[in-house]
Amino acid sequence: MRARFQELDWRATPLGELVLRRRWDPVFDREVHEIKLNDEFLMSSLFTVAEVELGRLALAGLAAGPLDVVVGGLGLGCTAQSVLANPDVRRLVVVDALGEVIEWHERGLIPAGAELTADPRCGLVQGDFFAMVRTGAEFDPASKPEGLWHAIVVDIDHSPRHHLHPSNADLYEPAGLRRLADRLRPGGVFALWSNDPPDEEFTAALSKVFADVRAEIVRFDNPLQQREANATIYLATTASVR
User: Fold this and answer.
1) How far is CA 109 from CA 19, 103, 104, in A?
2) Which of 58, 96, 129, 137 has the most Cβ atoms closer than 10 angstroms to its Cβ?
């Protein structure tokens, strides 16, 4: 008999109480993994459509050839898996501030962990993504100098206006976005997940830095609330020639 609810791990972190739990959902008739920070759900395997689309859309417009990609935010690994599903990906670095989440993947407590840790293209790095962008630090300190990236994909904050930590706010201003764009190759893509509808002010900030900007709405069914839910994916591309 399946356990209806199981707390797989609990940790005290600088951001608060972090919990990984597994439960059986009778509505969906399947096992569900969830990550909570304090009283907020960071991630649920019930709803991963937007996270998968984030990885797919980030790479969809890039020319064929070996791709080097950074993902900010590991979570349940869905975006990283989506990126690795593209056979052109040569290298993926996934940065997460919480070493506990990386450890859960390495221990196999999260289903995606086995795939991510076994793929030689993928490296999991503990670090503050926002601080790395702010200071120009290497995304993977253990590697040789990385050069520029084809895509930087971010799923950390709830939206450009709702942050997990106040210090994250500077990334969403033109100066922060410019620092991020400087890490991308010509024609490179910055992709961002948001739980809010498209934000005109943030889109305008992106347009000050990137050559091409659009916001894609991803819709998916939410049987728990008996309604259609949606998320926004921002896609910003640097100029082909600088």
Assistant:
1) 12, 9, 5
2) 58
